[in-house]
Amino acid sequence: MNAPMRLRFLARAAFFALFVLAPPLDLFRLDLTRGHFLLFGLDWTLDLRGVAPAEAALHLVVRAFLPIALVIGTGVWVAWRYGRVYCGWLCPHFSVVEVINGLMRRASGRVSLWQRQPPPEVQADGTRIHPHPVYWGAVVLAVLGFAFLWAVTLLSYLLPPAEVWGNLLAGRPTRNQALFLGVATGLFAIEFTLARHLFCRYGCAVGLFQSLLWMANPRALVVGFDRRHAEPCLQCDRSCEHACPMLLKPRRIKRHRFTCTQCQRCVQACRDVNLPRGRHVPLQMVSGACALDVSERDFGRRPEVPDDCYRRPHEGRSRSARGRLLEVGEEG
Ligand code: SF4
Ligand code: SF4
Hints:
mainly alpha; 6% strand; disordered C terminus; binds iron/sulfur cluster
């Protein structure tokens, strides 16, 4: 695992913990019993009763308009420049997708029940994943465990977490809580088993919003394919495709990778295959003018690619600051 992949693992783990712990720690939740949000332990309310008009307008701007504009504005800027990094580097749903993909591959050889062509057991980098049915137990445990945790977490975003977790730990949830947890766990279990990729691709408004912004910026960060030096692909078994948790084909143009989550697993796979053999790595993160070959190459258009977009093997150790930045997902 290289530095960006380690960083991504830590970011996902930390954000998953934040997702679960935000309500119990009163960092953020909507308390239906009180009828308003809590933010960092403080009541976040627009209670304007008995407030003078000027003060009410100030409350509206400071407590509603500014925080919402700040969150949306930051999200738009990040997605415009870097695409779906929230999905690939933070989203707790995508973490579930990747964990279940890995276990299903160990159980059945396929990362999804719908995958037609299973990836080969032995990858071009020498890694072997031999499927064994015993892993189905781990798949079921992971699906039910994540589904239940998600159901409890969602409930604790709506009701006082001390009550939700306290009742659960005492084994005495109220009738309505038990009903909510039972139905939500069942629905999440179905989605995690059968439709987790479908949800990421077509069901998630946050993902769709990021994809649309990313597509509108042809210079945004993207997985680039050095088609002028693609000889290593002849000796490879499409490791990049087998590594993609969204089941995309990373060497295709950007339009065909609309739902790319910028997780860089394809780039990592390409490095694992080629760097130990001293070969060039055709898949690399690119942006700016270098991204046009992927984003605008379509319907006969062939944009010019600057010569220095892709690092060559001899640049591997003494690579430029620009190369390092691109690797961790920054624009050079
Ligand atoms: S881009 Fe890299 S991982 Fe993908 S087929 Fe070519 S050499 Fe293999
Ligand atoms: S194409 Fe690459 S970066 Fe995009 S989702 Fe697939 S593995 Fe991740």
